[in-house]
Amino acid sequence: MEKTAQSQKVNSLITEVNSILGASIANLLLKKNNNVYGISKKPPSAEVLENPNFTLLDIDISQPLPTHVPSFDLIVHLLSESTQTLKNFRVSSSLTPATNNIIDKAKNQTCKVILMAPLITSDFFYEHIAKKQNTQENLRLFLIGDIYGPRQLVGKNQAYIHDSLNKPHHFYERNELTDLIYQAIVSDKIILADEGLKTVVPTYIDDALSAFSSFDGDYNKKSVSIIVSEGPRTALNVAYEIQKIAQFTLNKQLKLFFSGPAKVYTPEPQPVIRLEYLGFEPKINLAEGLKKVFESYRINISSEEFTFKPQQETKHLHQLSPAIQLPISKEQKVESKKTQEISAPKYLLNLSLQKVFLGILFILVLTIIKTGLDIYWGISELKSAKKALSTGQLEIALNNSKSAEKSFRIARNKFKLLTLPLAPVLPAKRDSITYALESGRFGAISLQFFIEGAYDFVQNLKVITASQDQKSSLDIEKASANFKQAYLTSTQAYELARISANGYTFLQKLSLAQQNFKELSDISSTSLGFVNFIKDLTGSSDKKTYLVLLQNNNELRPGGGFIDSYGEIIFENGHLMSLNFKDIYTIDSQLKEKIDAPKELTDKLGLTQLYLRDSNWSTDFIVNGKTARDFYKKETGLEVDGVIAIDLTFIQKLLFLIGPIIVKNSTQEISSDNLFNHNQSYDQIAQALFNKLAQSFSQIDANNIQNINLNELFKTTQMAISQKHLLLIFDNQNLSSLVKTKGWDNALPPILFDPSEESSGSRDFVALSETNLGANKANRDIERKIDYSMTVGRDADLKANLKITYTNKAQANTWPAGTYVNFLRVYAPKDAGLSDFQNGELSDLDAVEVSNPANLAVFSTFVEVPVGKTHEVTFTYKIPKNIKLEQAPTYHLYISKQPGTDKDSLTFSFNLPDNIEAKSVNGDQTFAAQKNIKIETDLSTDRQFEINLKKK
């Protein structure tokens, strides 16, 4: 697919770009001068990653694509649905959210979508997706055979596909053919399962690319195309071919075995393939393809870099009859003889190796001397740039970052040139250092873009907060473009730093920058999101009014805290017109309508009337926001365009950032240290704080913003959002979409995690909701420890145990401290069955109210913690689901943080029976084979744990 010379480059998106298929397509499109964006859990090859037109995106395609991602002309999606799902697909079957999102893009008349799936995919699959409205003319399906090629298998230092033979795999990762080839490379035998009758459809990677080039952009051809090199063959037939080719390319005598006791295996029916009707001409048959693969590894990789653990059962191996072992041809004997004749004696080989390593050592020393100064200077300049940015000196920071980029570029070029002789000997180590230097260069570039974006953003802040006689129009395009580039290049820097080795002394400091690049990526993404929606927020051509709720989280409520004060922010034509905070009682007294209070408020506080101050009865801010705006309209008659909730933790962080304030008609300074010990009302504090902030913006010097640390302000705001000290909902469609996608409205359950969705594994969910009904501020003194334990039964059933330990650390039983009277609600997956409950020394299931609203179960009870006491509450319940060890052997837990809480201690335990063991936790394989997993962390933000399992 091509655009005219006058138009922009084609933007292409490729999923699973780290696979041989994804990386090869990426290279093909890059050669066509496309802008290629890739998505994968592992980084792609250096050839792809280092191309200036390639960008690795750190996004989740199971969710709507973020706004900072460009619009795509072409999307190539390698399906990650399981083989069983695709093979047995029916119209009633479901797809993964990622695939659904990609297919929806085909509705866009400018976006072409190519889906790539294994050959065995059911005919019902395309029939199902083609029914989606307006997708047929923009949607193609390619069915791929057993794809293989020279780049598919690599050694330990570049673990790629076969680093874990027992893990679930997709068609673009491994197949029956690559498993056979792998065995031939790493061992002296090939073990065949199922009597060698499994079907193999060889598809050489070059033929696949040829087919892709033939089909790409031609949407007049049939919507489903088959890509193979030749027709189906049995695994046994392929093994004979491998045995033959390996004799004269790898100089190996491979023996063939059947694994396990003899049994009857019936090959599954395969589609009839007529090569003349494929639509392209395959050129690489199996014999030629195998020769290319084996020759590639004979030249580039020592087979001793591999370890092989056969996936098949090896207790009963039956060697094929020697009568059918292939004889060695005369030519092969000559080849073998030549190989023996040129073999050097061992002592000469050792001597040669000594000389080689001495030469390597000399070159490395020379390289370090030549590049050391540039590396040191680059690191120093990056530090200086970061320091200047943190103090608001944008011009100095920009110059430092430019100098750092130049130093890393020179160091990289020198290193690559001087270590060219090492390329065949130490390729992995050479690449590792090159990646590290390139990471520093990209990091410096991303910092430049961020600084430029900050400069442009500051100019817009001045416009928004300027006085009436200085009003001018907003110009956000430059800021948006710079923050977007900062995000993309910092993501690239992070990925390069991550894949580079950290064991080189002179690069250790540079490797420490990895986390800084990740932070810069996150801040750039947040800044970009805000800048892109600033006109929607401020109303570029109309009036916008927002209700702000100040929640006192020292008196915890489900939505974050008792609503102590409220504010009203008004923008008009993109400019701040007014910002006013008032005590909540000033408008609650105007409510005329009778609204019944929740039963718990009546029983504990004697309240029969519900007001705005007590309206945040849900942990879901979507519910609370709608309720608050309804109360606000009833009490004032005014409509608002959105609701914003902040708590005292956020106020304290802002005070720490901008310094002490003095409220109107007072001489008392309020700082982050004495925020909770003063005689000023919180509405007056909020008013003074945000007045100072707005004044700082209006008087800011774009080149030197030392009166406010913009970088720290971004980080503080981002942290407040992620830790739920700042919550938002908006009427504006663009803003609403952003908030929902990011989870800034604290939906319950999160829109990003549906506990009932089981296609990719068994999902578990936990959320706590506490309500302080003691008419005090006891939460300042409450320490909370949460222990969640999941026990998996032999049938993969799930039994949960949740223990919450409260300690009331108050020194005296006087207001605002006091007994913590807590109405506690625990949210679990729908229909969870409570089997045991302990509240201190009391054990009474009748003391717990069980309900099942929407798709969750809720356990509700009262807990009291006197001053100076510790109290434990325990819930034991069964979750009505099993882990599907055959189809989706994954357990996924989401623990939701309650708004207004701090960094509560969290311990997660996961216990397995003897017949099941763990493979990894959140991708970390150090937990492999463990039966009892224990992870200690905190609940400063939502936590997720994904545990991959397998049967023993």
Summarize this, please?
By secondary structure, the protein is of the alpha/beta class. It has 5 domains: 1-144, Rossmann fold; 148-202 and 232-264 and 283-331, no CATH class; 348-532, no CATH class; 541-742; 762-951, Immunoglobulin-like (Sandwich), CATH 2.60.40.
Please give a structural write-up.
The structure is a single chain. The radius of gyration is 32 Å and the shape is globular. It is an alpha/beta fold and 952 residues long. It folds into five domains: 144 residues, 3-Layer(aba) Sandwich (Rossmann fold); 137 residues, no CATH class; 185 residues, no CATH class; 202 residues; 190 residues, Immunoglobulin-like. Helices cover 36% and strands 23% of the residues. It has 24 helices and 34 strands. α11 runs antiparallel to α12 and α13 crosses α22. The chain has a seven-stranded parallel β-sheet with strand order 3-2-1-4-5-6-11, sandwiched between helices. Strands 27-28-25-22-30-34-32 form a seven-stranded mixed β-sheet, with no helix packed on it. The N terminus is likely disordered.
Write out key terms for the chains shown.
952 residues, alpha/beta, Rossmann fold, 5 domains, seven-stranded parallel sheet, seven-stranded mixed sheet, 36% helix, globular, disordered N terminus
